[in-house]
Design a protein that fits this description.
- It is built from no helices and 11 strands.
- It is mainly beta.
- Strands 3-6-11-8-9 form a 5-stranded mixed beta sheet, with no helix packed on it.
Amino acid sequence: GDCVLDSDGDGLCDEQEIPGCTDTLAVNYEEWATDDDGSCECPPSNNYAYSAQAVQCGAQIAGTLTYAVDGEGLVGTTCSGQEISAAGVWYVFNAQSDQQIVLSTCGTDAFNPAGNPLFDSQVFLFRAVDGDLDNLECLGGNDDGCSEGFMSEVAFNVEQGEDYYIYVTRF
């Protein structure tokens, strides 16, 4: 066997290549695939607590829950009397002073990317016990807390210098 064509130079003849998703982080990773065909469905970059997107007071954040996976094993657990019902994404807020903060998805349908509407959200707040992201303590959460619709809002007091992890998901 001589190769007639090995266009990607991986030592495997083109006619023997198996197309599919070769990204091990993708939700549709195919171990048997030898040639990436562009079909990979990767989780959002802030899918895990350790890759939480930093946010500041007054910020409006656009994001996506498409292809989110439950990396921390939270789905089915309860936080602040609310069952976490789906995989979500993470944000981190570092408090610059002692103050009350309001997290809200109320009225956010205008901020969602086209084709990815979020009609029903849940918002949860955690802190990493002793800075350990494998030991998250629930500080609060909400499902359907807005005056209309099924979006969520939660208010909480923060302490200067502390990091707070925000988990946003759909219901």
